[in-house]
Amino acid sequence: MKTGIATTTMASLPQTIILFLLLLGAFAQARDPFACDSKDVKTSSLPFCKVSMPIPNRVTDLLGRLTMQEKVRLLVNNAAAVPRLGIKGYEWWSEALHGVSNVGPGTKFGGAFPGATSFPQVITTAASFNATLWEAIGRVVSDEARAMYNGGAAGLTYWSPNVNIFRDPRWGRGQETPGEDPVLAGTYAASYVKGLQGNNGDRLKVAACCKHFTAYDLDNWNGVDRFHFNAKVSKQDIEDTFDVPFKMCVQDGNVASVMCSYNQVNGVPTCADPNLLKRTIRGQWNLNGYIVSDCDSVGVFYNTQHYTSTPEEAAADAIKAGLDLDCGPFLAQYTENAVTRGLLKEADVNSALANTLTVQMRLGMFDGEPSAQPFGNLGPKDVCTPAHQELALEAARQGIVLLNNRGPSLPLSHLRHRTVAVIGPNSNATVTMIGNYAGVACAYTSPLQGIGNYAKTIHQMGCEDVACNDDKLFSGAINAARQADATVLVMGLDQSIEAEFRDRTGLLLPGRQQELVSKVAMAAKGPTILVLMSGGPIDVSFAKNDPRIGAILWAGYPGQAGGAAIADVLYGTTNPEGKLPMTWYPQEYVSNLPMTDMAMRSSPNRNYPGRTYKFYKGPVVYPFGHGLSYTNFVHTIASAPKVVTVPLDGHRHSGNATISGKAIKVNHVRCNKLSVGLQVDVKNTGSKDGTHTMLVFSKPPAGHWAPQKQLVAFAKVHVPARSQRRVGINIHVCKFLSVVDRSGVRRIPTGVHNLHIGGIKHSLSLQPATLGVIKS
Ligand SMILES: *[C@@H]1O[C@H](CO)[C@@H](O)[C@H](O)[C@H]1NC(C)=O
Ligand SMILES: *[C@@H]1O[C@H](CO)[C@@H](O)[C@H](O)[C@H]1NC(C)=O
Ligand SMILES: *[C@@H]1O[C@H](CO)[C@@H](O)[C@H](O)[C@H]1NC(C)=O
């Protein structure tokens, strides 16, 4: 979103205003119906208000009653009222990336709704690799969103989640995403969207939106910003990487909306590209919902990119490409003239509106009284409930990643480590813990408070803020570490370093943070533990290699209860189970790497290292999927096929162009139900109960298209100490064992695919069904 809206915390408001808001809240009225108010007999008896009629018929009826002037005012986020038909104005723009957010004009905190449960930032939640958790968070967020809607404080259309690939470690918005792997991101998207939208057929609890389609993952780097960026992307990388989370969001998550991005892809603004919108999202993937622009991106491609010569052409191009709703005023201003000038047909406007009106009807907005509808009973009592806040804590516990544990130094013992020096610019963090696209949290537990529940603390900031420009506060920190039984340094980043419109310039800790950590570790009496808060990866090689630093934890931005979760992990009440959702590169990786170069694959002849664990082969600080536990897990394969036959569809057979290069085109394969089933035993050989996060990678047969490995499945299992549990894994062959050729065609390589699970390997041979077996 372009518009920055200042985050207001309750704490920053004067007491009198808070009192006023609370009084107001006490008398908060339920929202009036958006349309079809039974008190208005004239309009509520019109056919589009008939709940018993199929939605497409209701939409057609309503479209038939609207004038052109009325129609164009419905094409924008602050859609105008149509009083003569009993329809109120509606603000489409609300956000709920990891809790109901105060970004976007559709949502207002205050009154009966002073806060909402603020879950960890998405990159942290992704590290749990727990799809059940992602869906559960979506359910809680949509409960709170519906409650706020009923109270007149929020909309029903949420432009979340952000499922762009975290392609470059410097990206300021990487924190909002589920990481660098397309299958992880797609699974996250589908799960969170299901949680938000509910499970009631075509009816929607709230409407989610997967954004920003596509190849958008640069905000502002070296003079290039997202409003001017033309992402040059190969067909291979589109199909293999950038499209995957969006396709899974639409097909597996049934999302009700997709947002196109600011940038161009191969010279065409995404919001003006019929190939991307009409052909791919709606045509191939069958989106059941609406396509929305990023905020003012139609204006941006006209005014900033000069993509068309008149604004009417820009409006016409966007709608003809398949755009249904403009976040911004542009389409309300220019669409009518575009129709008058013959650049666009009224029928094109009607199809756009049919998509948005259908979503509003699926949300129940044309069904009269909100209180008489499903979720109509949700209200202030359903926001920030103890159960919701407990889930925010649980999510942080599941997402924290133990990167290093020398000795081991962790967990700390509340008997031996009675005083703890808690040091660092993030040691008493609150708002920092919720990252961007957050709301107003219900309450916070800072790291200092969390650790204070286990030990006596000596608090020192060490640096004034994360920029850490001087060493004025170093000596206090060093003295604290000298006295305490253990030292915990809570360091890292915040939104002043990485944010929307702010990409990082490098990967090291900012300012003099590194120096503070080393000096404190040198002086510390007890073990020194480094806790990092950040969205993007940090090159902490200095700490990894320093024998005085006992352990390193990454907490991401752990949400409102983050400090409690960090303390639970430090003291072993929680056995860490998170795994890195992105590669932690060394600083040198970015020194010669333009953020603007979109290529995923490495290219040795132009000294290009490639991106993500799938294609980059150089040294890393910590790899994708890294994460330790306080116990030890051992895998064995209990059962798995050695050979899998790939059945070709009726008219194909082996030895033909279909399997050129020994890789069968996926759309020549009978994919339905073609999957590989594995049974894996996971044994906890340690003395602590733990939850194992199992990642299954496949190494396809070598060839120029294939990544060195790719994530094909993941699963979680709780295993008590000295016990064993069996885990079933199903790998969809066409989706996950395929690779993409240079023309963007997905193919299944025949031959040996090696599956890697932790330290073990299983070879799987994929063979095309031979001639004669398949009968046409
Ligand atoms: C996944 O998360 C859910 C929700 O917090 C939790 O109930 C479940 O135990 C988690 N799964 C595992 C295996 O830990
Ligand atoms: C920690 O932060 C809270 C909330 O911002 C503040 O009230 C408290 O004084 C801080 N504690 C210390 C020791 O700085
Ligand atoms: C490949 O298929 C084409 C028809 O699509 C057929 O004419 C040709 O003979 C086949 N080639 C082989 C080697 O089987």
From TrEMBL:
Q: Which GO terms describe its biological process?
A: arabinan catabolic process; xylan catabolic process
For the Fibronectin type III-like domain, which residue ranges apply? Answer: 692-761
Q: Cellular component terms, GO, for this chain's entry?
A: extracellular region
Q: Which InterPro entries does the UniProt record give?
A: BXL (IPR044993), Fn3-like (IPR026891), GH (IPR017853), Glyco_hydro_3_C (IPR002772), Glyco_hydro_3_C_sf (IPR036881), Glyco_hydro_3_N (IPR001764), Glyco_hydro_3_N_sf (IPR036962), Ig-like_fold (IPR013783)
Source organism of this protein record:
Gossypium hirsutum
**What protein does this entry describe?**
Probable beta-D-xylosidase 2
The signal peptide annotation in the UniProt record is 1-30
**Cited PANTHER family:** BETA-D-XYLOSIDASE 2-RELATED, SUGAR HYDROLASE-RELATED
Q: Which UniProt keywords apply?
A: Glycosidase, Hydrolase, Signal
Q: Which GO terms describe its molecular function?
A: alpha-L-arabinofuranosidase activity; xylan 1,4-beta-xylosidase activity
Q: Which gene encodes it?
A: LOC107956083
